[in-house]
Amino acid sequence: MGYNGGGNEKAQREGEKGMLRSRKEKQQGMELVILEQMVPENHLLRKIDRSIDFSFIGKLCAPLYSENVGRPAVDPEILFRMLFVGYLYGIRSERRLEEEVNYNFAYKWFCGLGITEKAPDATTISVNRARRFRDNHIAEKIFEEILRQAVEKKLVGGEILYTDSTHVKAKANKHRKTTVTIEKSPKAYMDELDAAIAADRESLGKKPFDRKDGGEPPTTQTQQSRNDPQSGQLHKEGKPDGFHYSEHRTVDSKNNIVVNVRITPANVNDVDPVPDILDDIEKRLGRLPAYMGVDAGYHNAPTCHQIAARGIQPVVGYRRHTHKGGRFGKYRFVYQRDRNVYLCPQKQELTWRTTNRSGYREYWSSSKVCGNCPYREQCISPSMTRRVVTRHVWQDDLEQADAFTKSYKGKRIYAWRKQTIERSFAEAKELHGLRFARMLGIRNMYEQSFLTAAVQNMKRIAKAFLSSRLLSVFEKTPCLLLKTWRLSTVWERRPPAAFPIFIE
Q1: Distances (CA, A) of 72 to 66, 165, 403
Q2: Residues 166, 302: one domain?
Q3: What single string gives the DSSP state of each residue in 379-438?
Q4: How far, in Å, are 107, 469, 478, 496, 499 from residue 483 at the CA level?
């Protein structure tokens, strides 16, 4: 009886085993699969593909291909869609990008490949990018077209822009360097500044400075990388040592759309490319903004003058006054505009004596008065006989910018800076690989920055496209609760520029 029961149990186990498919059978089984159904409806790539028209890539690259010579080439739209995937998901290696596209159904769907179709080889991507696309500025043109589509969809306000810079580590060994002598490049505003200095000196009865048009240009010594000579050594307190590039980025306040990108070596001052940045903005948007927000690194008279001269209101971060040896700071001296003099804490006058080559007016005190002053030790050093206070010829523009920044409207605009430009940089570095340069040279750095900014704009456009669809649904519903939620949400997420009535 027990033996028969054991036989029945064994037969039962064998029957159950026969009803189940083994893992190998599942692996080798055949199924009808539709690639469209393998991509989730809420996938980021699906949102981007739905909201952005990429057909311009084929038209943009058509002159770079031959119609009747050689075998058919890989569609350039496929190549750039693969690059977009790499920049979107921080895939730095093009060989790894090829593998990811072959394995990921969403990537294949976005690139327009079939389930069994192989992605273009990594070498194909590299050769086309390096030989065919780079010299023709295709990356910049793609960035401009994505920006144009954002403007067309009314996602760019253009009233308030924020500009800042961040360092990008160059692909260079910081120990492989040499000391070189280079020419100092003149600043873009030097001609205008020289004219202002000459007018100032003539009003005082002094001769203008001789222009140094002839002779050898001024030079300076600097450290140059042997791996990437076009990068610059970073010299900033609290910043990493080594060779870097600086990315100067401008974003719009409405939806954090990147409107401009400019690359310089890291040893170039942040304020030097400001005139070129303003030119780029005007070219790409067709107009200049009403307000431009910058941090305290741009707090100087020439920068504020360059911005204000174009009809833009600068909103500049405040920089604290420095104190040397516990002596009276410059802020203790009051400027009287009508008389063009400074008054010291003892109400003694400092008169305008000269304007130096740097564009600063020098106001001197009387050595006799300073010699008998009870606060002499708190005002000047023992080796000096008088106090000298300087004032830039464009100081009025800086003071006007400071006054506006301290107003209610200026504070609202500047407070939004950390949620726009700072967030854009953080996203680019943490998610899209902008922390390190992928290739050597400033031209390659431009390509990386333009494509990074382009994919960030794609994400913003896709997000705004989805939000507009949801808001249109809320507008049609009669539910008061949903409309109240909509208004409160929009107010919390939009910058003050979207609601000018509240900041007047």
Answers
A1: 9, 43, 63
A2: yes
A3: HS-TT-SS-EEEEETTHHHHHHHHHHHTSHHHHHHHHTGGGTHHHHHHHHHHHS-TTB-S
A4: 37, 14, 8, 21, 18
Task: Decide if 174 contacts 235 (C-beta within 8 A).
Answer: no
- Quick check: 442 and 230 in contact, CB under 8 A? yes
Check: CB of residue 233 under 8 Å from CB of residue 242: yes
Task: Check whether residue 164 and residue 130 sit in a common domain.
Answer: no
Q: How distant, in Å, are the alpha carbons of 88, 117, 189, 210, 351 from that of 302?
A: 38, 57, 8, 21, 23
Measure the CA–CA gap between 413 and 415, rounded to whole angstroms.
Answer: 6
**Residue in 91, 265, 252, 56 with CA at minimum distance from that of residue 158:** 252
Domain membership of residue 123 as a residue range: 35-148
Give a yes or no: residue 25 inside a domain. Answer: no
Q: Please count the CA atoms within 13 angstroms of the CA of 17 that sit on its side-chain side.
A: 6
Per-residue pLDDT of 444-481, as tens digits, reads 899 999 999 999 999 999 888 766 554 454 445 555 44
Total residues belonging to the chain: 504
Cα separation, 80 vs 57, whole angstroms: 8
When the pLDDT of each residue in the chain is averaged and rounded to a whole number, the result is 81
The structure tokens listed for 368 are 């006799």
Residues 347 and 495 in one domain: no
Indicate the pLDDT class of residue 147, thresholds 50, 70 and 90: very high
Residue 484: band (very low, low, confident or very high) from pLDDT cuts 50, 70, 90: very low
Encode pLDDT of 212-222 as tens digits: 655 566 677 77
Is 7 among the domain residues?
Answer: no
Residues 347 and 266 in one domain: no
CA 466 to chain centre: 25
* Interstrand relation of 334-336 and 313-316 (parallel, antiparallel or unpaired): unpaired
Residue 348 half-sphere exposure toward CB, CA atoms < 13 A: 20
220 and 306 co-located in one domain: yes
CA 351 to chain centre: 43
Q: How far apart are CA 10 and CA 234, in angstroms?
A: 77
Q: How far is CA 169 from CA 231, 436, 440, 441, in A?
A: 9, 5, 11, 12
Do 123 and 214 lie in a common domain?
no
CA angle 297, 456, 246 (to 5 degrees): 30
Phi, psi of 246 (to 5 degrees): -110, 125
What is the tally of structural domains in the chain? 4
Q: Which of 92, 113, 148 is a domain's end point?
A: 148
